Amino acid sequence: MNELMSFWGQWLRPSAGLPTVQWALLLAVASTCGYLVYRHTGLPKVVGYSIVGMVAGLLGFSGAQWPLQGIGLFIMELAISIVLFDAGGRIPWRWFRHNPMVLVQSIAESALTYFAVYWTMLWLNVPHEAAGPIALVAMAASPAVVTRVVADTRAAGPVTDRAIVLATLSTLYALTLGGAHAEMLSRPGSRFFETIPPVMVMFGVSIVVGALLSGLIRIALRYMSPESENTSILVLALIAASTAIAAHLGGSAPLAALIGGMLIKQLHPRPWALPRQLGTASSVLTMLMFVLVSTVAAQADWNLAIAGTVFTLIIVRLVAKAMGVGIGNIGTGASWRQAVWVGAAMMPMSSIALLIASQFMAASASTGAVISSIALPTILLMEVFGAVIATVALYRAGETHKPWAELPTGPSGDEHRES
Amino acid sequence: MSLEAFHHSEPLTLGVELELQLVSTHDYDLAPYAEDMLRLMHKTPLPGSVVPEMTNSMIEISTDVCHSCSEVLSQLTPIRDALVKSADKLNIAVVGGGTHPFQQWHERRIYDKPRFHELSALYGYLTKQFTIFGQHVHIGCPDADAALLMLHRMSRYIPHCIALSASSPYVQGQDTQFDSARLNSVFAFPLSGRAPCVLHWTDFEAYFDKMTHTGVVKSMKDFYWDIRPKPEYGTIEIRVFDTPLTIERAAALAGYVQSLGAWFLNEQPFTPQEDDYLVYTYNRFQACRFGLDAVYVDPPTGTHMQLRDHILQTMDKIAPYAEQLGASGAVELLRKDVEAGQNDARWLRDRQREEQMLAEVSRQASIKFRG
Questions:
Q1: For residue A196, what pLDDT is reported?
Q2: DSSP one-letter string for A215-229
Q3: In this structure, what DSSP letter does residue B20 have?
Q4: Least CB-CB distance to B40: which of A95, A225, A333?
Q5: pTM listed for this prediction
Q6: Is the per-residue pLDDT at B99 higher than 80?
């Protein structure tokens, strides 16, 4: 036996290590679970991914630690950047010229969410320093979840389009204000004017990197077809590079990608064919992001007081978003019924909220801990249930490929629903 | 159900219907925005009407009764402008053309209206494949018999109408090699094609009674003929036109039809007969396939000639009537294109040759539609 082990030992080589095996297996399980959830319930695959991540986190999976750092942080930033670059490319500025009420609607729902959550947190005796950041985290609806739900249900229409745009804009505000707030939090005792330069550096770097990203892609699209696989690889590579550079230079990588996407839409008004081509690589990254988020978020400590605060926050956020979308709906060209479903479709929270919370954690460990204790469980619940609510909203709005009644309930389901 | 009496209409009056595409400004695929467009459009007082069509990425606009093609254009212009304004508000675009170049029929959703659901139940996937976009031109006739005479005379000029309006070379992302592939989708319907060659309304009523007795049809709406009488309006309705890329061309086509009608009524140039239809399907196919470069077989003589030459000859014959009706400019616009071998199908192919991306072709077509 010893001889056999000795012989075998000669063949062993250093490998990527146990964490790689753990992550690979976790992703395999998540992928299977996502498929089964989708196949048997019609709910989007992201629900399956999140459930697997949540279970892994609750079981003490050690592959991802809070606060995020190193390669885990980079992967999440990269996945968010890809989603936000695509989401930014869906926001034509000319639309706001023709329909400024959509911008008003977006500001109304974000502002109402912020203030409603902020005051609720104060009412629940959450410290003032933490209440603001938690409100900013709650402001961000998740374009990542919404776009995955849209892809899985093959939804299209006014509610779908508006939910994606409003979620993206709320993300823009949350990233901008969250970045600025985190910078100020990291400099306690500084006077207001002393916090301005670092905030300006954060924005400046993000804008410059975003502009550079869009400029390079614009040049590439002069010579390369947006429908080519090589163009997709180029875009993915440039987003990866900009993510690393923006983070390294003190900017916000997701903000840079979002600005890059919005700029390219203005510089290059031709049809946006990239999402269809970004393919499996971006799908794997996105799945990894959802698993990572729920794994990390599940590590939060639960107790009765936290649970009460989290459920109150979720209810207040739901009502505030719905009211904000409803109030701002006047003059936007959408019906009241559509406004209700848009508000519901904006419930999901996920990676961007986690990233903003992570910024606060990095800025101040003590305040960050309070923020995390409330934000993480909220994100966990709203990644899973937010996706379910958004799915129901799109079905009820009649914008999915098939109506709710025709969803498969067993193995004999329509295979064409697989995307 | 018996056939409705043929109502009175002023001869040679015009009514134009245009089916239009609603597309996303993100990827320029069809977008299900018909309900939202209708809601916004109903807030603006306009001539004519705006109504839903079979699937919810389509919309149909129509004029009131017009006396000239310039009046048609004067009605279509504010409707077009209101459409564009509403589309801008919803962040979508409106596009002409007989087909959407790359939409997938199975992704379409039937508009929520009882008749469309009934048709979907009967025709299955054909209803979703009916996401095609045509222009219908109604022309007023003095009486019922004159309408049938006008209908069958007009049948000889169906290839003209097809070639001049052809704007559907692409289907499901492929160049079909047809200038008007749209009509192939119409041909799949069992009651499509040509009307029976009867020249008296009493005979037509008898035919209609026999058809309703079989239970196959309930009303005139069940006939998908290339030209059909429309007794409730006192018109015949020509349905072979692809929707052009611009309303200017749509009005010009109406002017061409009106001038043809005036020529028929004034000169009674020939008496239609069943044998005219011997070459009808062949001529129709040629016009769909090759557009202005088609071969035209003259029904009475069997002579083969270039369709574009026959169109130009016809334009010479109707020129005096076009002048009387104020349609000279419209006919001249079409004549220049015929001489240059140009139609909307050619324009779409040229754009695709340049851009190598059908979505971009749709975007440029949406800019062209804005005028």
A1: 76
A2: HHHHHHHHHS-TTSH
A3: E
A4: A333
A5: 0.90
A6: yes
Residue B268, φ and ψ in degrees, nearest 5: 40, 60
Residues of chain B neighbouring A394 (CB-CB closer than 8 A):
none
Q: Is the CB of residue B40 less than 8 Å away from at least one CB of chain A? A: yes
**Residues of chain A neighbouring B108 (CB-CB closer than 8 A):** none
Q: Distance (Å) from the C-alpha of residue A141 to the closest C-alpha of chain B?
A: 21
A156–B contact, CB cutoff 8 A: yes
What's the whole-number mean pLDDT along residues B308-335?
Answer: 96
What is the Cα A163 distance to its own chain's centre? 14
Nearest-CA distance A44 → chain B (Å): 19
List the single range of A230-234, A316-320, B90-94 with lowest mean pLDDT: A230-234
Q: Do A227 and B24 make contact, defined as CB atoms within 8 angstroms?
A: no
- Cβ atoms of A38 and A152 within 8 Å: the answer is yes
List pLDDT tens digits, range A286-297: 888 899 888 888
Asked if the Cβ–Cβ distance from B88 to A335 is below 8 Å, we say no
* Smallest Cα distance from B27 to chain A, Å: 5
Set of chain A residues whose Cβ sits within 8 Å of the Cβ of B27:
271-273, 276
Token pair, residue A402, equals: 């098939």
Q: What is the rounded distance in angstroms from the CA atom of residue B301 to the CA atom of residue B294?
A: 18
- The Cβ of residue B43 has, within 10 Å, a number of other Cβ atoms equal to 9
Size of interface A-B (CB pairs under 8 A): 67
Report the chain A residue with the minimal C-alpha distance to residue B23.
A157
Residues B232-278: pLDDT tens digits? Answer: 999 999 999 999 999 999 999 999 999 999 999 999 999 999 999 99
Minimal Cβ distance to B31: which of A90, A156, A270: A156
CB atoms within 10 A of CB A201: 14
Q: pLDDT band at B215, cuts 50/70/90? A: confident
pLDDT in tens, B136-158: 999 999 999 999 999 999 999 99
Q: What's the pLDDT tens digit per position in B157-167? A: 999 999 999 99
A141 phi and psi, to 5 degrees?
-80, 160
Cβ contacts of B39 on chain A, cutoff 8 Å: 333, 335
C-alpha pair distances (Å), B28 with each of A182, B279, B366: 40, 39, 9
Instruction: Kindly list the residues from chain A whose CB atom is less than 8 angstroms away from the CB atom of residue B40.
Output: 333
Distance (Å) of CA A409 to CA A36, A312, B93:
11, 33, 38
**Mean pLDDT within A228-235:** 88
Question: What's the complex ipTM?
Answer: 0.87
Q: How far is residue B147 from each of residues A20, A34, B11, B143, B200, measured CA to CA in Å?
A: 79, 63, 10, 6, 9
A272 closest CB neighbour out of B27, B85, B109:
B27
